[in-house]
Amino acid sequence: MSKFLRFILLTILLLGLAGNVCALVKVKAKxxxxxxxxxxxxxxVKEAIRSGQEQALKKWSVGLDSQRLQIINELWTEIVxxxxxYVMETSQLNDGEWANxxxxxxxxxxxxxxxxxxxxNQRSQTSRQNQVETYLSFIYVxxxxxxxxxxxxxxxxxxxxxxxNQRIVDNKSQSNISTDTQGNLNVSVRESGRSEKNTQVDxxxxxxxxxxxxxxSYSSSSSSTxxxxxxxxxAKSSNFDSSxxxxxxxxxxxxxxxxxxxxxxxxxxxxxxxTSTQSRSEESILNISHSREQLSDYRSSGYVxxxxxGISYRVFNPQEIDTKVTEIFNKSGFDVVPCYEVDIAxxxxxxxxxxxxxxxxSTQKEATELARDAGLDFLAIGMLDxxxxxxxxxxxxxxIYAKVNGYIMDLRKKFAVKICSVGPxxxxxxxxxxSVAKTNALIEASQKASVDLVDQLRVKLGM
Amino acid sequence: xxxxxxxxxxxxxxxxxxxxxxVRYAGFCFSGNYSDIPDSYRYTNQLMSRENKxxxxxxxxxxxxxxxxxxxxxxxxxxxxDADTKYAMAFTMIRENVDIEHLSDITKLIYNLGFSxxxxxxxxxRVLQSYPIKVxxxxxxxxxxxxxxxxxxxxxxxxIHSLMQQQxxxxxxxxxxxxxxxxxxxxxxxxxxxxFSDQAREVISSFPGGEAAYANLIANQATExxxxxxxxxxxxxSKDYTGQKMSLxxxxxxxxxxxxxxxxxxxxxxxxxxxxxxxxxxxxxxLYIYGAYTNVSLFDSDLGDVYWxxxxxxxxxxxxxxxxxxxxxxxxxxxxxxxxxxxxxESLAKDKKLMRDKKGxxxxxxxxxxx
Lengths: 463, 371
What we know:
Helix content of chain A: 25-40%
Shape of chain B: globular
Largest interface: A-B, 31 and 37 residues
Structural class of chain A: alpha+beta
Number of strands of chain A: 24
Mean pLDDT of chain B: 84
Strand content of chain A: 25-35%
Structural class of chain B: alpha/beta
CATH topology of the largest domain in chain B: Rossmann fold
Mean pLDDT of chain A: 67
Order of helices and strands of chain B: HEHHHEEEEHEHHEEEEEEHHEEH
CATH class of the largest domain in chain B: Alpha Beta
Radius of gyration of chain A: 37 Å
Distance between the termini of chain A: 46 Å
Number of strands of chain B: 14
CATH architecture of the largest domain in chain A: 3-Layer(aba) Sandwich
Number of helices of chain A: 9
Largest sheet of chain A: 7 strands, mixed
CATH class of the largest domain in chain A: Alpha Beta
Number of domains of chain B: 2
Helix content of chain B: 25-40%
CATH topology of the largest domain in chain A: Rossmann fold
Largest sheet of chain B: 7 strands, mixed
Number of helices of chain B: 10
Distance between the termini of chain B: 39 Å
Oligomer: heterodimer
Shape of chain A: globular
């Protein structure tokens, strides 16, 4: 009677546990057994199912990374000897068939990979118990973009004409328009971004610039504009943010500086002795006419200088990941020592990472020496680089990419040796707001990197 | 002492065995890309923004009340509180198609709406089962309606609303007892592919949305019939979803990505040809036969085994008056939908090998059935 009671209570317990089982992976596999019988008995069917379960485990382990695969291979006998623990459920996909001396059956096997993870951790702990305590500390530093400086592209133009008046125009981003009393006309057009531009040209030439200049047009719309005289100057700018400046002197020299933004609307006001001419354009062609010069058929050519964006970072201490990373190292049988215990200031490492893109040799040396003096066996360093937030077009959620680099230094020998490393690998974090996305990206990246580092360390230490 | 223990044990045993599985109601949602909702579900999205007198979303409230009154499903109970369950059920709109045709002094409005009841596993963020429901409705309005006018939009939104109330909810009521939560050990099936021959492709070219949308319609029709009529545990057709992921945008603006896991068995439907022939003529009346020829294959994409591969065809007769312009596509569509629902289900159910249930020998369909 008491047995019956125990059975009932055990059944209840198992049913209760069944609901809480997670981390199940379904894998299809073929189980086979060599036999001459077309209708095999129960024993042979069981054998075939067992072979199918082993096949499914092998198929599942193929998808794992090389370090984990190596650990699984080492634990293979243990797993196979206790298949019922690691295989949750086996469903037959067919009734089985006999062909070429083999009876085969298709199976869908549910693998409990949480149990396998448990086995790996258990093995590490047992292995560690047989050895002396191993102390490990980790420092994970992170940086994120604080400001981005984007420079406009610069067009380096060569303006040439068919007659002797030829000038190479060297354009820079800043330019002014002014006309000096000697008749030199300095034209400066400044446009920035994609906003409307407003350009004023003041002509105050006395002797050389006459009232006719009031009809001089500075137009961006037509290919050429002439003004009473026979001077025609065309300076073409390209279809991107550009910089171009013009300077016209009474000697017939033209220097032009024009900055133009792609698809921008431009307003140009030309003021000549109180008279103003205004032109509006949406095209990226600038024509400058002047009657004083006997110049014709100006051509321009050039190239674009694209400046890469200047990014500055701010560092921060990713506290969110501390617990998660500690958990991973702890579960693997390492004694995690907080870095403040060994007097390592993560701020120095973070500063180096933000300014130099890596941790400088001197900072690294200082950290390893402090760790070694404090009696640590291993020091793990991780660098997390957070990208800019963006909105995912599919879900509407914020997403942030985190790039992670990491390594573990073995401090037990004469020299600190880098025994395992990971990355750079990118992970994406999602969230309803940038803060959640950032935390998720940090957790995802640090977790994956830590698991990879731990796996490598296990293999190195033969755990 | 023993008697007391036995009594307690039995009470606990009965409680555990008799406890009905609970599934949380996740609400009404749209399937697909978040950013596409205003375009993909133009009218229903407007309907979703309507509020009742209490300032609550009208449609959401109607579905909430409906499921509150119909919470007893096949083998589970729908709960509305924060129950300790990883399963959730979402009523999802998967298709909204309203075509407007102007014919002399009348306007034809053709409604094709697709819904699906998804049973989801929120712990592992995956879709467990799909129960699609489709609604087709033809409305004829006098006069030439201006397609983009607010009045016409409101009229369409109202029609969709009444279709949901009168057809969707009504149809669902009769089918709720057939909706079961997949049991442990039950396998799943999925329409994995819908292929069209060149001749079939030509016929369906007039379908709004093109071949992909029509393949979706056919796959959902087959899924619906297998899920409701054969009680097979079906996964949603996922051809359109990249990486076998499905985004569900809920009415509270949250979007969840669910994985569509690989199915135990896959179903491939090949539309071979459509057939039309004049059967008889009597005076002005003509009798046409319309037919659809398909090939359905039940296979295992991982192991490469084919369990069932047969031609499934269906025909129907249609009367026409001599000289009358006949909408051939509508007739072809009707027979094809009947082929992948009625005829397919009948053919599968008749197959003894698929349906057998002897000790140690179960057919493929039987392995996927929820009872």
